[in-house]
Design goal:
The chain is of the alpha+beta class. It is 22% helix and 35% strand. The structure holds adenosine-5'-triphosphate and magnesium ion (MG).
């Protein structure tokens, strides 16, 4: 779904800190999540994703700051009084109940007549593509189907916010990709706010309107997928989101919206000021993604710059080939990706390669 700036705020974190004893797990989280947004918390193991999600659900108290949901401060509001529902990594469904008993579980105290509740269960099952599975015993389902039951059970309570803690991580690659597509469709259909925790950067890029990248209890960057990928705020974010090549650089001059640099192996380059990204503690460096370098074959000419190099590694992926190519005059190979199209050869190790590149595709960290 396309994210629009006019949307109302659904969640607001105001300088949230969380200590477990002496351990400072959340270190000043300030962020807003909009109503109807598909939002992801992405980061390595132990960075505080689950902890932050649980502060929304009310399973975890905070040490200072505030968590607001739909304009209300959640201090002192217990989990069962919050307009949220959570889907866990391990399918927390009851194996001894049927699919429809599982999905209807949350409605057991609902005063509506049974026929209406049955209808709601049937609708929820249809939503997650489990129509006709109602009478099946829950233990007789595949992993993907169990996770759909867990989703239906959460959605039937019509929460304003659905919290998903690595809900797909136990599934195999194929099933995970299918469920990713289904979750995107489902979120569009129901229109409620989804907050997904994942440590899988591809999953976050594919699914989210916006992503908060977390390291060590802090948000390192909060942006839409394209901005995160094209303009990471730091080398650490760039390294975590996909692959990026880095080369040391020296800044020679800055004036009139241009930055003159000397980059190892690339010589003197002129970059636009808006190619300058965030901080890098180890000094200035340029970064560029593998797909911004192209190997030129017979008769092709470079649109911009061209260098010679030697292939040091080739990894064939079917649709893509990844190469490590060491450009002449540089001391480390660079990762480069090429789409495999019919008639295009795949180079071997030690072959010479003509490589096209462009200063406009580079990011400068300083
Ligand atoms: N109940 C607890 N008591 C003490 N420390 C905790 C507790 N829960 C979490 N932590 C610590 O807080 C940090 C953040 O944990 P959290 O579960 O939020 O990480 P995460 O980003 O979800 O990681 P993962 O990807 O492995 O699930 C970790 O270092 C963890 O050990
Ligand atoms: Mg976690």
């Amino acid at each position: 779904m396309t994210f629009s700036a006019e949307k109302a705020t659904m969640i607001e974190f105001k300088d949230v800190h969380k200590y477990y004893g002496d351990y400072h797990a959340l270190r000043g989280i300030t962020a807003t999540i909009k109503a109807g947004e598909f939002f992801s918390l992405l980061g390595p193991s132990g960075c505080g994703k689950t902890t932050l999600l649980r502060t929304i659900a009310g399973f975890e108290g905070i040490s200072s700051g505030a968590v607001m949901i739909d304009g209300k401060n959640m201090a002192g509001v217990p989990a069962n009084k919050r307009p949220t529902n959570m889907v866990f990594q391990s399918y927390a469904i009851f194996p001894h109940l049927t699919v429809e008993q599982n999905v209807g579980f949350g409605l057991r105290k609902d005063p509506r007549p049974q026929a209406e509740k049955d209808k709601a269960v049937a609708e929820a099952l249809e939503m997650v593509n489990l129509k006709g599975f109602g009478k099946r015993a829950a233990h007789a389902l595949s992993g993907g189907q169990r996770q759909r039951v867990a989703l239906a059970r959460a959605l039937i309570l019509k929460p304003k916010v659905l919290l998903l803690d690595e809900p797909l991580s136990a599934l195999d690659k194929k099933m995970r990709e299918q469920m990713q597509m289904e979750l995107i469709k489902l979120q569009r259909q129901v229109g409620i706010t989804f907050i997904l925790v994942t440590h899988d950067q591809e999953e976050a890029l594919v699914m989210s309107d916006r992503i908060a990248v977390m390291f060590d209890g802090e948000i390192a960057q909060l942006a839409d997928p394209e901005t995160l990928y094209r303009k990471p705020a730091s080398r650490r974010v760039a390294d975590f989101i996909g692959t990026m090549n880095f080369l040391p650089a020296q800044i020679k001059s800055e004036a009139g919206g241009k930055v003159e640099i000397e980059a190892h192996g690339f010589g003197q380059l002129t970059l636009d000021a808006d190619q300058v990204s965030g901080a890098n503690a180890e000094g200035a460096s340029i970064g560029f993604r593998p797909e911004t370098l192209t190997i030129l074959f017979d008769g092709q000419t470079a649109a911009d710059r061209e260098s010679m190099g030697t292939v040091e590694e080739v990894v064939y992926y079917g649709d893509m080939t990844y190469y490590d190519v060491r450009l002449d005059g540089t001391d480390a190979p660079m990762r480069l990706s090429m789409r495999n199209i019919p008639g295009r050869p795949v180079l071997d190790i030690k072959e010479r390669a003509r490589v096209a590149w462009s200063p406009s595709a580079m990011v400068l960290f300083r």
